[in-house]
Structures are given as C-alpha cells and as structure tokens.
Design brief:
The complex is a heterodimer of chains A (275) and B (247). Chain A is α/β, with parallel strands linked by helices and 275 residues long. Chain A contains ten helices and eleven strands. The model of chain B has no long low-confidence stretch (mean pLDDT 90). Classes of the chains: A alpha/beta (275), B mainly alpha (247).
C-alpha cells in the first residue's frame, strides 16, 4: 500500500471517529420515558428496574413506562412542579447509581430496610409489601416451611432473596436478574418455587399459563421512594406530596387501578423517620 | 480515588466474603474444565468430519460446516438461554432434560452443554487450520506408503496438526473460562454471580474485584505457558540457527 493510500485510509478512519464522537455528544438523555404533564420546571430523573409489573412495566413501546410506581411518581412530580423522567436500571446497582447522582430518585418497588438506610434515605411508605410463593400448578409447596430443601428462585438483591436465605431452610437459592425470568424455570421444573412480591407474583400467575400463587408470607415490609442521603429538602417535598396524595384519594385510586384492592388504612397515615 | 478504593478494594469485605467467592470460583473452575475438555474433543471430531473425503460423504461435510457456521454465529449468551429454556420442555427423559449428574445442578450442565456446542465450533476451525497447515506432501507420502485416509490422518496428519495449534486452542480455552461467567444469567452460583450478589446487598463491588483477581491467578500463568509453547515451536523449526528470544 503506497504512502498516499495509507494516509487516505487513516484520514477516513479519523473522520469516522470524529463523526461518531460528535453524534454521541448530542442529547444523550434519551433512555428515559417522558413523565406526566407536570408542566415545565426541572426534570426529576427517576431510576427504576423495568419490568416489575404491576409497579413498573413497559407501556406501548419499550421507551414508554407505566405502572403503580410510575403513576405515583408522576403524581408526586406534578405536586413538585417538575416533570418525571424514568431511567431503566438494573436493580442490583440501582442504589449505587443513586449514590453517584445518576438520578434524583429511585422508585422501584423498593422495600425500606435498615441496611439500605445506611446508604440512602427513604420517604414515607406508599405500599405495604408481602411476599408470595409462586409455584407450578399442582405443586405441593404450600408454605414457607415447605421450601425446605427445595430449589427456590428469587430476584437478585431483593428482600425476597433475603427472606428465603435467612428465614427458610431452602436447599438451593437461585438469584435471577429479573422476576419474570423465573417463569420458564418454574414451568420447566428446574426450580420448585419462586418468592416475589405478591402483586408481581399475582400478575405473573394471571398472565402466564401453568403457574399459580400457593401461599403468602407476611413480612411487614413497606415500599418507599428513595433519595440520595442528605437530600433533605427533596425528601421533605416528596413526603409532603405523598401525604397530599394519600389524603386526596389518589393513592387509593392507584391501588384500585393497579392492585385491584383498596389502600390499607394504616398506610394512609404511616410516616417514616429518616435515620 | 478514595471512592474507587472503597468501592472496589475494600480488603475487609474481601476477607469477609473470601469463602463465598472462592466457592463460586471453584464452580467456575469445574465448569471450565468439564466444558473445556468436552469442547476440545468435540471440536476435533467436527474438524475430522469436515475433512472426510469422497462424494458419498458430502452430506456429512455439509452438515458439519452448517453446524460450525451456526454455532459460531449465535452469541453464547443466547445459546445458554435457549438451552436452559427449552430442554425441560422437550419430549426426552427427565434425567436428560433436567440433568443433575454427579451432584451438579441442572444450571451447571446447561452451561456445559452451551459452552461445549459453541466452543466446539470455534475449536473445530482452529483444528482445521492446523490440519490444512500440514504440508500436502505428508498426506501424499502417507498414502503412497499404503495407508488409507483414516490411518494417514490418525498416524501422520492429526498429531502434527494438533501440536501446531496448541497455542490458539489454549487461547480459546482461556476465552471459554472467562465466558463461564455468562452462565450466571441462569442463576448458576459461579464467581461473577456471587460477586454481584454481594454487590447488590452491600452496595460495594469489592467481591467482584476479588473474583477478577482469582481469574487472573489462573489465566495469567496459562497465558505465559502459551507464550512458552509458541517460543518452543519456533525453536523446533528454526533449524538450529541462533534466534533472539521472543518471550
């Protein structure tokens, strides 16, 4: 290859690299979905692990999100005069990402736990969570005790995983990246049971053939919205908004729309002290 | 900088979870050895099948080439998901559909199957380059000594071919070993999954760093061994002329 051809090739490659760089430096905020009509104001970026129906799931397309959490956050954002924008993030790194400032808030069916409180701050609770045992139709696993020596699927990094590992005598615990990943192994018989949040389990049992919810495990967990530690102003605003949403019946509406039950009374007055 | 040290090099956390990560890494080793040996063997079989001469055996050659193309063309992650998702539903006996042999869970064996069928295809191509690299005169000489194709391959060609391709095969083996981490997607508790588990409950990535270090403990010596093999091969064929060491 002559000198001039080599130079031409290198120049072409350099040009491509510059073009890609320029394109990449454009608006790179595009992996989130537009929020509600909160009208103007600063955007509220919200991290969430989609899908986890009925809390967060895809809407009409892969860039549109909807669900209990999504609509709750949109309502909160509206009260704050901001527009919510969701970013799909894997649950097992979501708190780290929040701590690094990648988003303003996390709304991802997140249980308030003392361990998590060491690194993040929670709002007042907006949902009372209980776990469910999901099994293949006709299975004999009917309670947490029956999980002894069984192969149990859980979602990585969730309180369901903690519960199975610490409170049951399960034989093998398999952490899956996403809740819905457990459906095929359940139906195929490679896992004997799966432990997930009740609404998610019920949604999956409803929409997928061959599996059913066999038991509920009361764990007394509550979901909260999550903000970076130290963001006290934001936390206060969010809690105020949440209280208004509870008082004016919006929370109850969301409960009925997405969970098909009424919001529990104790939730409507529950508050949470950030520690 | 402090954040990096704290997030990725928290030594007390590494010490606390050392046993868990080691247990995961032990599964990694088992998976790589079993799948690696099977792939090395399967790759050779494929390469030989591809080589069979004669018109009546054309369907065999054709199918082999098709297999190699397909399994070099589909990403390993998808193969893992497809194998683990479909096997339990196939009309085959449960002991094969949900394998639990030798005390290893089904996820382990799905990983072995996926790694073997994929890496077998890659290694087949490596063997092929070795076989085709043996000078044509060798085959002619062997045939003229009265050997048939099978004897010639077995006694003359294949031994030379395999010796030539040991370095690229070892490289493929190192790649296979690293790709065992993909089996974490079906919830096999190998090193990467254990690291991520710790990360998601303690919000610290040091267990992952520890897993990475364990990998290096095995792959670095292997890489140096490959280099030494290459150097030895060079020496064998340089007819005694003094050479500058390439290592």
């Amino acid at each position: 290859m002559g000198n001039s051809r080599l130079t031409a090739l290198l120049a072409a490659l350099a040009l491509c690299a510059i073009a890609l760089f320029a394109a990449g430096c454009g608006d790179d905020d595009d992996d989130g979905a537009g929020g509600g009509d909160g009208g103007g104001g600063q955007t509220l970026t919200v991290g969430s692990d989609v899908p986890y129906p009925p809390f967060e799931q895809f809407g009409e397309s892969k860039t549109e999100f909807t669900g209990f959490d999504v609509e709750l956050v949109e309502a909160v954002a509206e009260k704050l005069g901001r527009e919510a924008k969701f970013v799909d993030t894997s649950f097992d790194t979501i708190f780290r990402d929040l701590a690094q400032g990648k988003f303003d808030m996390v709304a991802s069916a997140t249980t308030i736990t003392p361990e998590r409180e060491k690194t993040v701050d929670f709002s007042d609770p907006y949902y009372l969570a209980e776990q469910a045992i999901l099994v293949k139709e006709g299975s004999d696993v009917k309670s947490a005790e029956d999980l002894a020596d069984m192969t149990v699927g859980v979602q990585q990094g969730t309180t369901g995983q903690e519960y199975v590992e610490e409170e049951t005598e399960a034989g093998e615990v398999r952490p899956y990246p996403e809740g819905p990943d457990m459906v095929t192994p359940l139906r195929g018989g490679t896992i004997d049971a799966a432990v997930l949040d009740i609404p998610v389990a019920e949604k999956l049992a409803e929409s997928q053939p061959g599996i059913e919810v066999s038991a509920e495990i009361k764990t007394g967990e509550e979901y909260g919205l999550v903000v970076q530690q130290g963001e006290e102003d934001l936390l206060d605003e969010v809690n105020e908004a949440l209280q208004e949403i509870k008082d004016d019946g919006t929370l109850n509406d969301l409960y009925e729309k997405w969970l098909e039950v009424e919001a529990p009374q104790e939730l409507l007055s529950a508050t949470h002290e950030a520690s | 900088m402090d954040v990096i040290l704290e997030q990725y090099f928290d030594l007390s956390l590494m010490a606390e979870h050392f046993d868990d990560v080691l247990a995961g890494f032990w599964i990694t080793i088992k998976l790589s050895v079993v799948a690696g040996v099977l792939a090395l063997f399967w790759g050779l079989v494929l390469a030989l099948l591809r080589q069979l001469p004669g018109k009546p055996l054309m369907p065999v050659r054709f199918l082999t080439i098709a297999y190699i193309d397909v399994f070099r063309g589909i990403p390993l992650l998808m193969i893992i998901l497809l194998v683990s998702g479909s096997l339990p539903f196939l009309p085959i006996p449960e002991s094969i559909a949900i394998p639990r042999w030798f005390g290893q869970p089904d996820t382990f064996w799905y990983g072995v199957i996926a790694l073997t069928i994929t890496y077998g295809a890659y290694m087949a191509e490596v063997y092929r380059s070795g076989i085709e690299g043996v000078p044509g005169g060798q085959m002619e000489a062997a045939r003229s000594l009265g050997m048939n194709h099978r004897q010639a391959m077995r006694n003359v060609i294949v031994p030379q071919a395999v010796r030539r391709v040991i370095p690229p095969l070892l490289n493929d083996y190192i790649a296979l070993m690293k790709d065992t981490t993909l089996v974490s997607v079906i919830a096999l508790n190998e090193a990467a999954l254990v690291g991520r588990d710790v990360q998601s409950s303690l919000f610290n990535s040091s267990a992952l760093t520890l897993g990475a270090i364990m990998f290096l403990v095995v792959t670095l010596p292997l890489a140096r061994f490959v280099d030494r093999q290459i150097a030895r091969e060079h020496r064998r064929f340089s007819r005694g002329a003094p050479r500058v060491e390439t290592g």
